[in-house]
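A note from the maintainers: we've had questions about how concatenated examples are separated. There is no special marker in the raw files; a new sequence line simply starts the next protein. For clarity in this README we add a label.
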Amino acid sequence: MKAALKNLTEIDSHHVKCFDLHEELGLAYLAEHGETTTLYLNHRASRSWLKGDYPHLEHVRWFELDSVIAWYRDESEAVIISGKSWRKLAIGSPHRLLLSKNYIFVSYYEEGVRSRSDLLYLHHVVCTFTREGAFALGLEDLMIPSGFRDSFIEIEAGYTFGDHLAFVTCCLPDAIWILDVPKKHLRRIAVPFPTVALDVITGDAKRAYAIYDNRGLLYAYPSLPSFEFAVFDLESEISSKQNFAVIEKPLIEAGFEMSAIKFQPNSTGKIIVSDGMKAALLEFSEAA
């Protein structure tokens, strides 16, 4: 197994509030300067507003070539922002948000799942919306006949391929789940070790790659490594944990500070690695 870095770029952690890095679209981020927040697309200012007008706008993902989708935890909507427009989408209060070519996948915090509201889709763990914001499918519609209705609470990590969502949940930590929106089908793929502490997962229809961040568990389990790397074959359902050095080596060679490393998903779930000074996408391939 080999890991490589793509789209290596500098970031200014003193001003950058949140960012997204896409293999084709590049870098998008919100930066704060005094009382102003500005959306930058590939280091070019696209739009600015007073920070006090939207103080809780904390997440941003690429949406199209010239726009991003951003959201706040405590608001029941997201916004599509470009240099020319500001469009609201009523999709609830996202915990996580991922995009495919045709859909927006939104997962919610536990309290949002357990409560009911006038927005009938909010009791779903995951909702699928069209890119125009129309409700398309709720995960509970597929969970009820499968017998998993009360087992899914929060989605821990996921990625998209085609119009599918692959995800893991801490409440059922022995599986990867594949949601097929066009076929309205939910598939369970058993894994031989728990997905607890799985931080990010990426991949395609055949294989998934995951990074475990155990740093929050070391006080109770000091023998654990800080990070672990796992590979899941989604066709054969054979999984294995591999040496994290596969990932650590290119990071050190590129000058990343390992003590400050953070992993996060981009708009489609590809893994972004950053240390507060620079960021890059992780790409995996079979060793020659």
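[label: protein 2]
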Amino acid sequence: MIPNLLWRCPLCFTIDALHQQRRWFTEDLLRCVYCHAQWSVIRRKGDDYYLRLLSPEPALGEKELPLWAWYERMKESFTPQPRPDRPPVLKPDEHIFLQAKSASLVVQEDNPEFFPKVKKRKEIQKLVYPFMRKVGKGALLLTDQRLIWQKDKIFSFWFSDLDSVYIEATHYLGLASGARIYKFKLNDSYLKWLTHLAHLASQKAGNKIFFSNY
């Protein structure tokens, strides 16, 4: 659970480096596989989760902090870093930052781009929120210009077309573009994707996109 929130080590800042070891009769252990830091995971009823730093030797006052404080430290000086690989789908001036090999996409069932055979809603039904329907699983890529979802064909979600990006109850990464909603289900940290999206899209689209808190 903790690595979904702390998606990079708050000490060495390596992404996807934390591993939580669950233990039945004592506190869980959180380890960084890169710098080998270790924390014990403490849950206090009516309060927050706390992480007690076991190694390396903590500085004065930094041994035990609430989870939110470690999260704030994790975000310090964060700047998205491009990956070295270049999938064929990229444009010459485009760079990839995140990739998920399997991401489920859910869209409104009346979206003709994905379900062209579905009849359009009648004019009187336009105010009715349509049901969501799963399109399938595909690869999801985040570049410095768009989100790319690739299954049988390539679908691009350009930053310039987005209105909002949000996390829905830790189950989906959601996008709103015009009157359309798109939801991605990942086996990855949604906060990691949201944070990267917020940094990259803000550089391209300015403040026109609303982002949920991260």
